[in-house]
């Protein structure tokens, strides 16, 4: 028995989160399944940003550092974000980019495990995770980056820390953070999680991890280039020394002391002047998240991704499409990845028909299902249009074959 | 013969830049002499930011990385900013914070002078410059930070690079960049300039320097936490390896290669995903700068600061105020610093009367004169109100004595 579009419409009518779709700007004629890359814009983001520009900067000018709370934005915003990842107040600092956040976390971990000279990085990590670790290790010298193969084999007593992504950006596979963290820590190493593809997709829990990093422009809907975050477990706050020692992480930034003295707590993970404007949409987005039940988010995410997998297997079976994401809902995030040898032109043909996913080399089609604004009928239509593109071989059209500069 | 307020009004009437004041939002009843800390808001910044939020993010969503040019923002914006500092196209990358930009420049310089193990940092640098160098050197190991005392004495053959601010953030003193650069380079070291207090104040020329960094939220009027910039001389583009090797600096960021391969040219100085929203006011501000004659800016800056010094010396002579900034216009930026033992309450009393400068411990009162929007009558009024605050000892009022958390 195949589920029908009418069945999907009925599921939407019963969806306890259905009212949230109206809080996002979604273009007409588009099924936006790229919320795992750049989340849709909260309607409130526009007014929130305008307020910071015209009322705060425009009227309060330099006084805004006090009167508008700019100086503390990295920490006040971090406290609001913390419950999304299982952290408490004073444990998350928002700012910079994920790449920079990784440098903070890994450099702090290296310093906390001085005898150990190996940083383990998952080959399945998003490339920037590996690139920045490579640059850091090269600069520091005397360290080695080891690829994560089989976890228990790699965990020798020379490992300082392990950097892994909770959800694989390509396959959508989700790792068991509690189990992995426990094994890494049992081996004497520190565990650092990259939450880029999980924060905002469901209730993340890194409360046992040593450090975590992530971005806010995917499921957290905070806009292009929105600030990243870094979490540090309180047991490390007193000792952690991350290497990017800018003045905002100083114990007394306005005392203009000659030497660096790290601030207490998570503030020592801040660096330079925060990008004030870029915090506005994030806080507008967190206004929504504070009203959302994360268990309902997860239930809907599982339902959407399960439905998509089911429909793809039913409708697209004859066309050489492989479902890469694990079938077990516990083992996936809120993304479904499919493999097709001509993935690139297939995705372009899909986008031309209003179904927006993205492509990751060499052959992965990714579809993200942001539970706050994606409907069951969207899932149905996306699978049906995908089947049509494959059945009619639309993707063979030459205009889909040519590579764009950025995909 | 003392200049009168009417004389100042006449100077304003003849000011070739007077029309620019209308392009900025300036609060009523305020003389804003803190443009050297946070520049005033260009009127156009509001619409520019709204357009990026609602039209680019809201409508183009993830497609904005191509269609709205987000991906290239660090370089396209850098090319627009380049003429302000004497650089050419392809030599400036915008993004991150000044603190992070310093890590890029200094780590690249260290790698380019591998045998030399000393980083010279001016004690007069803004503290973050020293803090981040301290953190970098500590992480890398085997290096030493040496304070800049007398330049010719410090320039031994173990010096890899020298980091100096073109304009001293406290005293407003301006250094001779050409002469200092030549001496540093003659000693085999690399010269890195911090332009935070000079870019946008006059025509900067770092074309002979090796690297330069700066912020855009002071005289460049790009808003609180606007992105910083880094300049690298083309002779270093092929060899420079800065240590923050994020994916945006990769030769092929969307190929998702396992290892880091730096991009050609200045792009290798970019790191993570650019803070797209924070670029909007900067580009709105550069629209203004592209219509401005920098020689007129400098001429007005010299006139404003000279007038302020003259008036302060005339009106405030009896009150123990010392002019810290050099009298020679060639040796100062666009800021005048005064010293007073009770500088903190004096500044608070001034602000209470609508004259906004700022205070830097232990005893410096700073007044920035942004030539795009400060008038001669503002200078007159500021000096007159300062004289009154001192004459009537308004600053002794107890409400001005108590310290604020952030000053």
Tally the beta strands of chain A: 15
Oligomer: homodimer
Any guess at the CATH architecture of the largest domain in chain A? 3-Layer(aba) Sandwich
Q: Mean pLDDT of chain A, as a whole number? A: 95
Question: Distance between termini of chain A?
Answer: 37 Å
Count of separate structural domains of chain A: 2
User: Low-confidence parts of chain A lasting 5 or more residues at pLDDT below 50?
Assistant: none
Side-by-side strand order of the widest sheet of chain A: 4-10-9-8-7-5-6
The secondary structure category of chain A is alpha/beta
Instruction: Tell me what portion of residues of chain A adopts beta-strand conformation.
Output: 5-15%
Could you state the CATH homologous superfamily of the largest domain in chain A?
A: Type I PLP-dependent aspartate aminotransferase-like (Major domain)
Summarize the helix and strand pattern of chain A as letters.
Answer: HEEEHHHEHEHEHEHEEEHHEEHEEEH
Shape of chain A: globular
Q: State the helix count of chain A.
A: 12
CATH fold type of the largest domain in chain A: Aspartate Aminotransferase, domain 2
What is Rg of chain A? 22 Å
Protein architecture, described:
Two copies of one chain form a homodimer. By secondary structure, the first copy, chain A, is of the alpha/beta class. Chain A has two domains: 132 residues, Aspartate Aminotransferase, domain 1, CATH 3.90.1150.10; 243 residues, Type I PLP-dependent aspartate aminotransferase-like (Major domain) (Aspartate Aminotransferase, domain 2). Helices cover 36% and strands 14% of the residues of chain A. The first copy, chain A, contains twelve helices and 15 strands. In chain A, the strands form four sheets. Chain A has a seven-stranded mixed β-sheet with strand order 4-10-9-8-7-5-6, sandwiched between helices. Chain A has a four-stranded antiparallel β-sheet with strand order 11-12-15-14, with helices on one face. Chain A is globular and about 70 Å long. In chain A, 56% of the residues are buried. The mean pLDDT of chain A is 95. Chains A and B meet through helix 2, helix 3, helix 5, helix 6 and helix 9 of A and helix 2, helix 3, helix 5, helix 6 and helix 9 of B. Chains A, B: InterPro entries: Kynureninase, PyrdxlP-dep_Trfase, PyrdxlP-dep_Trfase_major, PyrdxlP-dep_Trfase_small. Chains A, B: It catalyses: L-kynurenine + H2O = anthranilate + L-alanine + H(+); 3-hydroxy-L-kynurenine + H2O = 3-hydroxyanthranilate + L-alanine + H(+). Chains A, B: Its EC number is 3.7.1.3.
């Amino acid at each position: 028995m195949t589920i029908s579009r009418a069945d999907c419409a009925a599921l939407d009518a019963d969806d306890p989160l259905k009212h949230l779709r109206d809080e996002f700007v979604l273009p007409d004629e588009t099924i936006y399944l790229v919320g795992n890359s750049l989340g849709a814009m909260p309607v409130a983001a526009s007014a929130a940003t305008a307020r910071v520009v015209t009322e705060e900067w425009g009227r309060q000018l330099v006084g805004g550092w006090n009167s508008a709370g700019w100086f503390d934005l990295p920490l006040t915003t971090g406290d609001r974000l913390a419950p999304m990842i299982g952290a408490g107040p004073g444990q998350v600092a928002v700012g910079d980019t994920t790449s920079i956040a990784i440098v903070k976390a890994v450099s702090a971990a290296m310093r906390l495990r001085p005898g150990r000279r190996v940083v383990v990085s998952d080959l399945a990590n998003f490339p920037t995770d590996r690139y920045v670790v490579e640059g850091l290790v090269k600069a520091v010298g005397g360290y080695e980056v080891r690829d994560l193969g089989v976890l228990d084999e790699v965990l020798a007593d020379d490992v300082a820390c392990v950097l892994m992504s909770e959800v694989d950006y390509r396959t959508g596979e989700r790792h068991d953070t509690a189990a992995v963290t426990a094994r890494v820590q049992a081996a004497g190493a520190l565990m650092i999680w990259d939450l880029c593809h999980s924060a905002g997709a469901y209730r993340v829990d890194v409360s046992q991890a040593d450090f975590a990093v992530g971005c806010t422009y995917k499921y957290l809907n905070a806009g292009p280039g929105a600030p990243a975050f870094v979490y540090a477990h309180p047991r490390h706050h007193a000792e952690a020394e991350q290497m990017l020692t800018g003045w905002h992480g100083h114990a007394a930034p306005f005392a203009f002391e000659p030497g660096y003295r790290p601030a207490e707590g998570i503030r020592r993970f801040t660096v330079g002047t925060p990008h004030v404007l870029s915090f506005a949409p994030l806080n507008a987005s967190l206004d929504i998240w504070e009203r959302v039940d994360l268990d309902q988010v997860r239930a809907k995410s599982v339902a959407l991704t399960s439905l998509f997998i089911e429909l793809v297997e039913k409708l697209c079976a004859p066309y050489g499409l492989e479902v890469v994401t694990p079938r077990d809902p516990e083992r996936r995030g809120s993304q479904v990845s499919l493999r097709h040898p001509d993935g690139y032109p297939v995705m372009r043909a899909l986008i031309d028909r209003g179904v927006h996913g993205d492509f990751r080399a060499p052959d992965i089609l990714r579809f993200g299902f942001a539970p706050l604004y994606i409907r069951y009928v969207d899932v149905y239509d996306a699978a049906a249009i995908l089947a049509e593109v494959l059945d009619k071989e639309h993707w063979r059209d030459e205009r889909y074959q040519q590579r764009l500069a950025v995909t």
